[in-house]
Phytoene/squalene synthase family protein (Alteraurantiacibacter aquimixticola), 364 residues
Amino acid sequence: MKRPRTLIPSRHLRETPRQSGGGRPRASLISKARESIEEGSKSFTAASMLFDEDTRDRAHLLYAWCRRCDDIADGQDHGGTLTLDDSDPKDRVEAIRILTHRALEGHPTADIAFDALGLVAAECRLTKEMADDVIDGFALDAAGWRPRTEGELMRYCFHVAGAVGVMMARIMGVPADDHDTLDRACDLGLAFQLNNIARDIWEDDAAGRCYIPEEWLAEADIPPGQHMKPMFRPQLVKLAARLVDLAEQHEAAARLGAARLRFRDRWAVLSAAHIYGAIGREVRERGEAAWDHRVHTTTGEKLRYLWLGLRDAMRDPEPVDPMPRWTRGELMVMARMEAPPAPMPTTPLRDEEVRPATPKPQPE
């Protein structure tokens, strides 16, 4: 009688080799990432062309991951329609997190955008904490969250843009311990997102979202969910201007950090600041007509902002006094306080000689 074969002991099993980028060729990942950014963001494409080749490629790799996460979370494809099953938004965010962690651990994900993140993370030492900060913003949207206070609005902006700014700074070679420059990179991301929120108030409302703090709406005597009604348009114009004013404060602070970057990186960052800042200022200038047509910058305007970025890159930044109310450190604390508690460890503790059931006999 034959004995049944036993399972192979675990010591004989080989672990899947870890490879940054999921084992895909670097050139292939960069090519796909470039296609993604050219389709998804003409503004970012224009500014990123000023980087040196390595920085540009890494910026595109990071953008591809951000774009893919955004599409999965919203059920879209580069902002367009994407046919998905009836999966729960929270499940989609959890899938984003799992794929992201797998990519950061050097495992293949079967998704080129996540493999792109794995590659750029390995090259620039991007951490799981940085990526989780970004994913937490998608989690807020999946939960149908809305900000009650200005602080909660800024915490959301930190997740979806400020944290990306920090990752971009690391890609540009800012050391992990240069906290002041990383703070300024976060400021730039906050400015970008505040301008985007001001521009997209109508689109967000159509999607059932609102990022204007409830306290701001109450101060303006606008009932919840009614801010797009014509009778409240004058108050809404003031709230949008308040968003843009806040964005300009953080943009001014970001320019201080840009001055410490290499020249081409500084030029790219300051050009992007002009392009995104112009969006917010156009919203403010249009007044009640701001949401009749989506605000955007033309190719000619982008070229002008690239020239202005070059001019600013050759000058010292203007001093900022006072600095913005909301800091990266404070927003990170808020984010950690609102995060779910860490899971309890499941590894059993050794009990040998930790607390003996009976005392050992002492030698006489």
User: Anything to note?
Assistant: The first strand starts at residue 76 and ends at 77. Residues 18-144 form one domain. Confidence is low (pLDDT under 50) at residues 78-85.
